[in-house]
Write a structure and sequence with these properties.
The structure holds 2 protein chains of 2 kinds.
Chain A: H1 2-12, H2 21-46, H3 50-69, H4 76-96, H5 101-120, H6 130-134, H7 142-171, H8 173-178, H9 183-205, H10 210-224, H11 228-253, H12 257-285
Chain B: H1 6-11, E1 15-24, E2 27-37, E3 42-46, H2 53-61, E4 67-72, E5 83-86, H3 100-108, H4 119-130, H5 147-159, E6 165-169, H6 177-194, E7 197-202, H7 205-208, E8 214-219, E9 221-226, H8 228-233, H9 235-241, H10 243-254
Parallel strand pairs in B: 3-7, 3-8, 5-6, 6-7
Antiparallel strand pairs in B: 1-2, 1-4, 8-9
Helix pairs in contact in B: 3-4, 9-10
Classes of the chains: A mainly alpha, B alpha/beta.
Chain lengths: 286, 261
Amino acid sequence: MIEHWYRLIDIVLPFGWAHYTFMKNALLAVILVAPVFAVLGTMVISSRMVFFTEVLGHSALAGIAIGVLCGFSDPSWSMLGMAVFLAVLVNVIKSTTRASMDTVLGVFMAFMVALGVAILSRQGGFAKYTKYLIGDILTVTPGEIVGISVIFILVLTYWYAVGNALVLSSVNGALARSRGIRTFLVETSFTLLLAVVVMMSIRLVGILIINSLLVLPAAASRNVTRSLRAYTAVAAGISLVCGVAGLVASYFWDTATGATIVLFAVACYVVSVGGKVLAGRGSARE
Amino acid sequence: MRSQNDTISCRHCCIKVSGLTVAYGKSLVLDGVELHIHCGEVIAIVGPNGAGKTTLLRAILGEVPYRGRMEFLQGARPRKPRIGYVPQKIQVDPDSPISVMDLVVAAISARPVWLGVSRALAAQAGDVLKRFSAEHLSACRIGDLSGGELQRVLLAIAMTKEPELLLLDEPGTGVDMQGLALFYKLVRDLRERHDISVIIVTHDLAGISPYVDRIVLLDHAIIAQGSPAEVLSNDAMIRAFGPGLWNVSSLPEISSGKGKA
């Protein structure tokens, strides 16, 4: 399978940067991950979960630390376990108490980060783990790309089946429930999916910027769209373009790929704000 | 047609609430509420803030646990009626890209809205909105609607279920007088066409009176009830309810703007 991709790239992109196998792998990973992040991001913003996903990303530190303590060579599973725990916990707290989620999440993030840093920095060994902070998509393996493809299909299938229920739940929970939607199930499954996708992508994108990738394309799209279809499509488009542009630029600038992608996404956001302001002026004049 | 046969109208929702008690933690919000809701009746539940009006609706919806009995007398085989629900002024992000069309289609169709709205579904949604004087809003973002417009859209969505019981929670909140009159009129017309029971929770005793069959005064328990004429003319009834209601009932005349919370 992957050989076909390599051959296709050689034909379609006969450029120096695309010659390297690691760039071909990274390009494929970006093309699969970017739209998934954008689509999830649209609902993260609509459901006001931006801070939650930030906490989710940072809780990976504690997940890695626990994995290291347990002696796992690959901390993915302990990260995933931590994320699932957090996703369920947050939904239970949200549906059973009236506590301010903002505060609860803030405390939780402080705990997760401190626990992770404390454990990982024992005997001055934290430097080993900075790769998780920054991420490295250039070392993505064909095996990981298979995993990303599975997530890609999983998210699109979920979005197809649950999309409308998510929209109604995000507008008003009681309204959704009055139409027979089991909002607890819908919201919990969505946070679980988010947790899985975020944790599987941490190694590639990095803890520090994973939330930006999730949120920025949708935030930019929101400024310039007036329907759900446009919102989703423009977010996916922005994410894809920024992903590929960031990857190529990082090759030439010799910078971290994830951060470079985010810089492109920030630029898109700034442009979208400009577009929103101009559109506002235009309609005011009419 | 309806008058020919009583059982036809009684096939629709009749609800008998007895000893309904709801507590949030240690505080009793509803304490032994006794209420019969007849078929095809429009009733207003009026009471001061914190009287448990919204909680009563939430109990009927099954959103909060309660003690006591709620019987749905539905012809030969009692079952829970189909309930249409219009929530209290919902918080919509002003920059939400969800359009009115998106919201309606998400509610009436399983086809994911993010893939776009087919022409057939758009036409169907247009019909739904048209019945509530909201068809011109279909392309608007829900964040751009006024309070009254949003209420009409939510009412249109609630009616797509062909409910036997319609619950309206504070439809007056954030709606100007003109919008509210239109809303109440649409609700009254509904009852004439669909023969459904409607429960409206409101502060607005004076405003709601022309549109309802019965007014129920609620303050943790049912304080009094009767036809609008009885309630409005009966000083004793209102006095029994407490001075709070006097203020509440005169509120709409004083503050008719959108700022009313």
